[in-house]
From TrEMBL:
<dbReference type="InterPro" id="IPR037207">
    <property type="entry name" value="Nuop51_4Fe4S-bd_sf"/>
</dbReference>
<dbReference type="Pfam" id="PF10589">
    <property type="entry name" value="NADH_4Fe-4S"/>
</dbReference>
<dbReference type="GO" id="GO:0046872">
    <property type="term" value="F:metal ion binding"/>
</dbReference>
<keyword id="KW-0479">Metal-binding</keyword>
<feature type="domain" description="4Fe-4S ferredoxin-type">
    <location>
        <begin position="330"/>
        <end position="358"/>
    </location>
</feature>
<dbReference type="InterPro" id="IPR019554">
    <property type="entry name" value="Soluble_ligand-bd"/>
</dbReference>
<keyword id="KW-0408">Iron</keyword>
<dbReference type="InterPro" id="IPR017896">
    <property type="entry name" value="4Fe4S_Fe-S-bd"/>
</dbReference>
<feature type="domain" description="4Fe-4S ferredoxin-type">
    <location>
        <begin position="359"/>
        <end position="388"/>
    </location>
</feature>
<dbReference type="Pfam" id="PF13237">
    <property type="entry name" value="Fer4_10"/>
</dbReference>
<protein>
    <recommendedName>
        <fullName>4Fe-4S ferredoxin-type domain-containing protein</fullName>
    </recommendedName>
</protein>
<dbReference type="GO" id="GO:0051539">
    <property type="term" value="F:4 iron, 4 sulfur cluster binding"/>
</dbReference>
<keyword id="KW-0411">Iron-sulfur</keyword>
<dbReference type="Pfam" id="PF10531">
    <property type="entry name" value="SLBB"/>
</dbReference>
<dbReference type="InterPro" id="IPR019575">
    <property type="entry name" value="Nuop51_4Fe4S-bd"/>
</dbReference>
Length: 424
């Protein structure tokens, strides 16, 4: 066999040795996957744009080595514009017979069709690595997406063995904001959380899987120090709850219950035992679900619970969000130095904002329901948040530019009559 001494691993979920995989049984069919959710990384688009010829070479090697006559190529519907190019490339290299290109519109139905007992399933990137492996000087690379709070986000081919920190610094060009890195998620929406102290972990299958992540979706997303890990986990669990096929009860119900528990934690409704329950439920899902998605769907929450336990405790026990990301634990105010009196925020459902033309607006905290509408609509970003310490603010609307916190010439506000006369 051509790969008798090869150490090449597959580029899918578990990074199994290709040699061991091929020797496992007599294969009747090869399935080459260009499958991906474009909302996550678009690594497949990168492959389709640059390496169609090399991927086809890998398919030919696999076909000849294993004497496989049936080849099915699956491509996500979001990349269907490449089907014509791919057909032409395959025709040139493989001829017109023995292959089929299938556009996948429903990933859940596709998984039932493709993962059959005698079907050898490989990602397109594995076929690329197979083609390159014939060159003895080739250094194995992985196509990854770097996103989040980095200066140079994008898709890169990185060599195995360098650290996560090197990837962020050398390819992502470091963090974009002036904040420190709080954590990094590796592996898309089911990937694990790595703290800043863990960034010296090398990018290798064994290492990353040891931390509880899988890199079918090779994405590294960087988050700064002002990220609320609890709210972040809520968003991840909500997304993953929509991706389950629903076949496994543990997966279908488990992810949604994890979302609800964490959602309560961000809204001041957290209860004693919620963290322990979430950990137990996550561990049950890992052992009680059938597919790799179900086993890894709780990874974002599970790993963040272990690494940022104190932050979850503060949300549930003390009702505190240190980053003020959770509105339930913050109050809104209008910065008198930023407000230009435009009036856009005064369309408040609770009528909690007082103001007028060219007057600094004021939020009545008692009437405010913290819907966040004013914060979202303010083009000047004048609506801000505070926690236990309230900033010095005018008690009533005053002229734009007239308020000086703590100054002797500070204006406490115009009386109702004066405001009316001024507006006239």
């Amino acid at each position: 066999m051509l790969l008798e001494n090869s150490t090449l691993c597959g580029h899918g979920l578990k990074g199994h040795s290709i040699r061991n995989r091929w020797n496992n049984k007599e294969w009747n069919e090869l399935a080459c996957l260009f499958i991906e959710d474009e909302k996550q990384s678009e690594n497949v688009r990168y492959l389709l744009e640059r390496y169609q010829k090399e991927i086809c070479n890998g398919i030919i090697i696999c076909k000849k080595e294993l004497h496989i006559n049936t080849i099915k190529i699956y491509i996500s519907d979001c990349y269907k514009e490449y089907v014509g190019q791919l057909k032409e490339q395959i025709k040139q290299q493989l001829g017109e017979l023995g292959y089929e290109i299938i556009v996948v519109t429903n990933k859940k139905h596709f998984e039932k069709e493709v993962f059959q007992e005698l079907t050898l399933v490989h990602h397109a990137e594995t076929m690329l690595a197979l083609s390159r492996s014939l060159n003895k000087d080739d250094i194995p690379h992985k196509v990854i997406t770097i996103s989040g709070d980095v200066k140079n986000p994008g898709i890169y081919e990185i060599p195995y063995g360098i650290t996560l920190r090197q990837i962020i610094d050398e390819y992502g060009k470091g963090i974009k904001s002036d904040k420190e890195i709080k954590f990094v998620q590796v592996g898309g929406n089911t990937g694990a959380v790595f703290t800043e102290e863990e960034l010296d972990t090398t990018f290798e299958y064994e290492n990353l899987m040891g931390y509880g992540t899988m890199i079918e979706t090779a994405k590294i997303e960087v988050f700064p120090s002002d990220t609320c890990i609890v709210q972040w986990a809520v968003d991840k669990m909500l997304y993953n709850s929509k991706e389950t096929c629903g076949k496994c009860v543990y997966c279908r119900e488990g992810i949604y219950q994890l979302y609800k528990i964490m959602k309560d934690a961000t809204e001041g409704k957290g209860r004693d035992g919620d963290i322990e329950l979430s950990i137990e439920l996550s561990e049950t899902m890992k052992t009680g679900t059938l597919c790799d998605f179900g086993k890894s769907a709780s990874n974002p929450l599970y790993t963040s619970l272990h690494k940022f336990r104190d932050e979850f405790d503060k949300h549930i026990d003390r009702k505190v969000c240190a980053t003020l990301s959770c509105l339930a634990y913050a109050n809104l105010y209008i910065d008198p130095n930023a407000c230009d009196g435009c009036g856009a925020c005064m369309d408040c459902p609770e009528k909690a904002i007082k103001g007028g033309e060219k007057l600094i607006h004021v939020i009545d905290v008692k009437a405010c329901e913290k819907c966040g509408r004013c914060e979202a609509i303010c083009s000047k970003k004048a609506v801000k948040r505070y926690g236990s310490i309230k900033p010095q603010l005018p008690t009533e609307p005053v002229e734009v530019g007239s308020f000086a916190a703590g100054g002797l010439d500070e204006k406490k506000g115009l009386g109702l009559g004066r405001r009316r006369r001024k507006s006239e």
